[in-house]
Amino acid sequence: MKRVLNIVRAAIGLAAVASATACNTPQVSANTPTGTVRDSAEQVLYGARTVVASNGVRRGELSGDTVSTFDAATRFEFQGLHAMFVDTLGRPRATLSAPKGTYRIATAGFDTEGRVTIVSDTSRRRLEGTAIRYDAVQNRLSSDSAFVATAGTRRLSGVGFTSDPGLFSVKCLQKCTGSLGP
Q: Where are the beta strands (DSSP E) in 16-113?
């Protein structure tokens, strides 16, 4: 009888240990999400477009090949980002293209990643860089990364800049070489 009781106690102990171990072991299956951005997106939109505005003033238009929404549709992650900046009368000032970008409704601005190109429609200036930010409230482009701006044969390069969206007033912040002229 003692022997049977010891075997039952041992079986119960092994079952308790096996049960506790099973609870701490993560289960992995072919259907387990990998945690990529798209897996956690609230919505995924293709060929999406939105107006960029600040205080009721239209600053331009933002579009993307693929757009994923996050944070109760207040943050948008763009793949294949394209922006068109306009003046107060709605006339085009410049276009921006970047492989990736993030638009936040709360700040009315966006940040870009990768090789970014901005081409002015009116001044025929061109700026290339990485990690460029647009602030719609101030209607300003800025960066703290290396950039190259050209206007015809003139060239300005450096690290960090601020500019209006039409590239009329590009101000280099550090390690500046060259000039775009008047």
A: 43-54, 57-70, 75-86, 92-104, 109-113
